[in-house]
Amino acid sequence: MAEGKEAEQVSTSDSDQADFIEPETPVEIKNSMLVTTDSYEHIDYQDLESPVYDSHPSGIIHAIVRSGSVEESTDTNDEELHTQCEESNEDASSNELSSKEISDVTEEVSKPEVPELNSAEFDEDDVQTPEWRNQKKHVFILSEAGKPVYSRHGTEDKLVTIMGVMQALVSFVHDNGKDALRCIIAGEHRFVFLVKDPLILVGVSRGQDSTQQVLLQLSYVYNQVLSVLTYSTLHRIFKQRRNYDLRRLLSGAEKFLDNLLNMFDSEPSFLLGAVECLPLDSVIRDMIAQSIVQHAKVKDLVFALILANNKLVTLVRMKKYYLHPMDLHLIINLVNASESFKAAESWTPICLPKFDSSGFLQAHISYLDESCQTCLLLLSVDRESFFTLSDCKNRIKDRLLKYNGLKAISDSLTRTSYSIQQCGISDLRHFLYKSRSTAQYTSPELEAPYLSQEEQERLFGLYHYLHHRIHTTARPLKILYSVGPHETLLGWITQGFELYAVFGPLVTKPAAIHAINRLLRWIKKEEDRLFILNSVTF
Amino acid sequence: METRKRAFLKVIILGDSGVGKTSLMNQYVNRRFSNEYKATIGADFLTRDVTVDNKLVTLQIWDTAGQERFASLGVAFYRGADCCVLVYDVTAPNTMDSLDAWRNEFLEQADPLHHDEFPFVVIGNKTDIQAKSEKNSVTQSWCSGKGNVSYFETSAKNGSRVEEAFQTVAQKALEQDTELTKEAYPSPIQLPQDNNKSHEGCSC
Ligand SMILES: Nc1nc2c(ncn2[C@@H]2O[C@H](COP(=O)(O)OP(=O)(O)O)[C@@H](O)[C@H]2O)c(=O)[nH]1
Ligand SMILES: [Mg+2]
């Protein structure tokens, strides 16, 4: 990819720009499903570091639980919601530090054992191995006290020293003029810091990720932590105990962090802030959605969705509430990382930080088919509704069986996605198309030359580069045409969509422009199969 | 509840310049002593694994530059310490008089939840030069007046009582590393007589 970066930049002149005729909203949206058009554009990189959304838990869950009562709660405070969610533990005392008797020092000390010599040595073998050092991407989470919470590679035990240094650096910069350490570039490594009180997240990248892209990744990691703990709990813990070793509460959740980071390295959805829908005939998709609407009309059910192979089949939501793509990614990650859902119907708490970072939704999770490809999630604020939702699930399943909904899903899955040939455009090798208002994207299968792992990573790197050049440089671009030694890249951003296209290296600019105009027409023709265009509510 | 990971404990060493903080840490971690005096710049730390109550824990010991007081690393740095070691030099009585200031400054900056219960270990160092601190009784009574404070007299040079002192540090630090109260984490949903469920994502 490095070559691509150095490649010739062909500037687009005004006359060229005239070729890019912005189609009137290529994808027609009545009612966007994931998010409202006006409330969500795309990821704002300046915002990643701002604690705004999470310092004011929206208290939506609380509001839903309370709705029906006359008093609309506008400013829910954490305490209130907390009581709400955890009434059963109310009596536990909030403080368990007990004062210690000081006995005579000489007696207090038990006979120290003679330490073995090697225990005194720096036990850092892990960190010294070339494998560890050569990892493309490291992600560390530590508490503000500098205690290790998570490391993507190597065990945190061995990383005490590194974590200590990172905490000292953050603390040092912070205290010198209330500044914030954002990034250190050393050789080909980029160290990116995200301080989300009471945690410090550090990403170290050896690839071509930009600072903002690493920051985005760290934000996801932070949200994943919140998803397991909630913002309120996280803060309550560290208010109670600054020195707390958070690994205890996160034990068992490391696999979600690992999985999230792996997905981040291979799925464009995170970079784009969008989800991929399973291509389906719109009539069938409507039928699936209606099955849910009719058979899961249950009080307090906020979201119901079906996922198949990390793709969205349908989403039904309570009126007024939207599912943010970042939250949906956490749900996809939860399903993707867990084998146990395949064994049995599950009932698990999950916090969706963009929806409400202060509390848990309760998720009923089950697979609808024998082969465990089609996963139904029913997210409720009612912690007692397992059996009700289980009934709903059976009814939905029956109906989907009866009307061949499950078959349609599995047929679409076996066809995988679609081939670039289907678009009928020569020269075009691959593309990502994001419909901005629906926060959905579509992309063809990977084909030659992007079949090997290595080539796929390189292609992914190209997209990162293109995305970075367009969005996160000082001057955001609308169009970028970049000729590299192995391929030519074209990025185009409009009100309605973002398009990232990859051509062979020999394509000419007029041919590329011609090609993407044809591509846009093709997408327009296929849009009701590729995207979920109308929002379904209970 | 579950298999506990090895505890990781943060220890901070404070005291006037030249009392032997760096030497103590080196003696404890590396079993080495040097007569050479090199002022610590900013801060440095060493780690050592140690067994307390049959549990292996990792101590991360931060050594600081005394002369600059807290200016060097930033106050945020001291937060979340599990134990603080205050060192003075038994041959220089004025260094003992500073203990109060060091303790106060630590409490103010680190701001632990209960100031009176935060564990300190006071070390009178350099007993190889002068066997007994002339301030011994003064220090003893200072310590007992301060709550959770233990007192040791050591020599970083010949290693006398250094192990014992740090063993107590580890012990006290580990006592800080306690479980949270139940309320901090929501309990799993209990479904009556249902054998067909799992609690993914819940730590319990
Ligand atoms: N005789 C003797 N000298 C010591 C002892 N501990 C430290 N020193 C010496 O005192 C000086 C200051 O020690 P150092 O550890 O750098 O003090 P710090 O400024 O508190 O870190 C050095 O010259 C050390 O060699 C001790 O226990 N006995
Ligand atoms: Mg020193």
From TrEMBL, chain A:
Residues 1-25, 68-131 are annotated as: Disordered. Residues 98-114 have a biased composition (Basic and acidic residues). Residues 299-396 form the FUZ/MON1/HPS1 second Longin domain. InterPro entries: FUZ/MON1/HPS1_longin_1 (IPR043972), FUZ/MON1/HPS1_longin_2 (IPR043971), FUZ/MON1/HPS1_longin_3 (IPR043970), Longin-like_dom_sf (IPR011012), Mon1 (IPR004353). It comes from the Eukaryota. Pfam families: Fuz_longin_1, Fuz_longin_2, Fuz_longin_3. Residues 137-260 form the FUZ/MON1/HPS1 first Longin domain. Residues 427-527 form the FUZ/MON1/HPS1 third Longin domain. Plays an important role in membrane trafficking through the secretory apparatus. Belongs to the MON1/SAND family. This is Vacuolar fusion protein MON1 homolog. It comes from Tegillarca granosa (Malaysian cockle). The lineage of its organism: Eukaryota, Metazoa, Spiralia, Lophotrochozoa, Mollusca.
Automatic annotation (TrEMBL), chain B:
SUPFAM superfamilies: P-loop containing nucleoside triphosphate hydrolases. It comes from the Eukaryota. InterPro entries: P-loop_NTPase, Small_GTP-bd, Small_GTPase. Keywords: GTP-binding, Nucleotide-binding. PROSITE patterns: RAB, RAS, RHO. SMART domains: RAB, RAN, RAS, RHO. Residues 183-204 are annotated as: Disordered. Belongs to the small GTPase superfamily. Rab family. This is Uncharacterized protein.
